[in-house]
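Worked example 3. Consider a protein that binds BIS(adenosine)-5'-pentaphosphate.
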Amino acid sequence: MPGVKTAGRIVVLLGAPGVGKGTQGIRLGRELGWAHVSTGDLLRAARRDGSVLGLEARKYMDAGKLVPDGVMVDLVREHLAGLGSGRGVVFDGFPRTVQQAEALDRALAPEREVSAAALLDAPEAVLFKRISGRRSSPGGRVYNVYFDPPRRDGVCDETGEPLIHRTDDQPDTVHTRLAVYREATAPLIGYYEAKGLLVRVDAEGDIDQVYAGLRAAVADRKPAADRAATGS
Ligand code: AP5
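Given these inputs, the predicted complex is written out as structure tokens:
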């Protein structure tokens, strides 16, 4: 149909630290054949590589603060260019500020646009429990000693690597990350709501329940230009 955009969809996952963005984003990407882009994972990889970016990011991450917008926008733009435009993308942890969201919109235009922003929502007590039990593989696979343990204690099922406890998962740092979320990232809820893109997903249930809600909420949403063209 003329004017209908057929390029891959772009879904943004929003939500507080520990709510399950990575867990759900990896699964959604895998099931739909979309790329899963976690800016936290990109930064942790840069830290492991000892790159200039990694060294710069480290001081912000360990303090629970946001890495500056300019650094993040360049990183994501470069990563997007390597993905090709035909593939859907699940963004996890980006954008994190209104400035980043505006930069993402500019970077995607004119061929692509965000088709949904899914807000994963759960009470803070649930977030603390999830974060305290989190263990991660260097490659980004996430486990939880209470809710989603690996088959062998402390070892990744997929790669056999030792699992790590993130340095920013200490309770004091988690409090800072939550405050930063409320101040800098929560305004994105209004940003995407105003564009008609926000969908709310109850993230308090178990991993399968949350995934079912997310999948139903985002997978069949088309970009706004498609909806306008088809009247759907
Ligand atoms: P990032 O890695 O993005 O951290 P975050 O947003 O704080 O989110 P988390 O990774 O803590 O949690 P999540 O929601 O992915 O939950 P997960 O699936 O792991 O960023 C880290 C740092 O990098 C930032 O603080 C900042 O410094 C920097 N940064 C990154 N992006 C940036 C940006 N765009 N701009 C500026 N700075 C940036 O789940 C948590 C645990 O719960 C796991 O153990 C999991 O197994 C378990 N779990 C998940 N779902 C469930 C469920 N439904 N039931 C039971 N357990 C569950």
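Take a moment to read the result before moving on. Residues 171-185 form the longest helix (15 residues). Residues 1-7 have pLDDT under 50 and may be disordered.
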